[in-house]
């Protein structure tokens, strides 16, 4: 299983809720954590690529990028 980290601009609970909903619906996501306070999203998946997950987050309308390690 691979862990991916993203910086996501979220200003409220609705923003983090939209990201949570998108990741819940995305097949192949094993585990995830959305932190509104830290503006970070961590996703674990054995089957999805970093770019597939990023695209799903960006479809919520949020500004997102791969976090620098």
Automatic annotation (TrEMBL):
Query: Per its UniProt record, what CDD domains does this chain match?
Result: HMA (cd00371)
> Among the entry's GO cellular component annotations, what is one?
cytosol
Q: Does the keyword Oxidoreductase apply?
A: no
- Key word Ion transport present: yes
- What InterPro entries does the database record attribute to this sequence? Copper_transport_ATOX1-like, HMA_dom, HMA_dom_sf
Q: Where is the HMA domain?
A: 1-65
One Pfam family, please name it: HMA
Keywords from UniProt, A to Z, are: Chaperone, Copper, Copper transport, Ion transport, Metal-binding, Transport
Q: Which SUPFAM superfamilies match?
A: HMA, heavy metal-associated domain
Q: Please give the biological process terms from Gene Ontology that the record holds.
A: copper ion transport
Please list the GO terms describing molecular function: copper chaperone activity; metal ion binding
The family annotation for this protein states: Belongs to the ATX1 family.
Q: Which PANTHER family match?
A: COPPER TRANSPORT PROTEIN ATOX1
* Name of the protein this chain belongs to: HMA domain-containing protein
Record the organism.
Linnemannia elongata AG-77
């Amino acid at each position: 299983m691979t862990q991916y980290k993203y910086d996501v601009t979220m200003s409220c609970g609705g923003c983090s809720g939209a990201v949570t909903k998108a990741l819940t619906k995305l097949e192949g996501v094993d585990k995830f954590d959305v932190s509104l306070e830290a503006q970070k999203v961590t996703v674990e998946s054995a089957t999805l690529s970093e770019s597939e997950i990023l695209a799903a987050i960006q479809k919520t309308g949020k500004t997102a990028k791969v976090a620098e390690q």
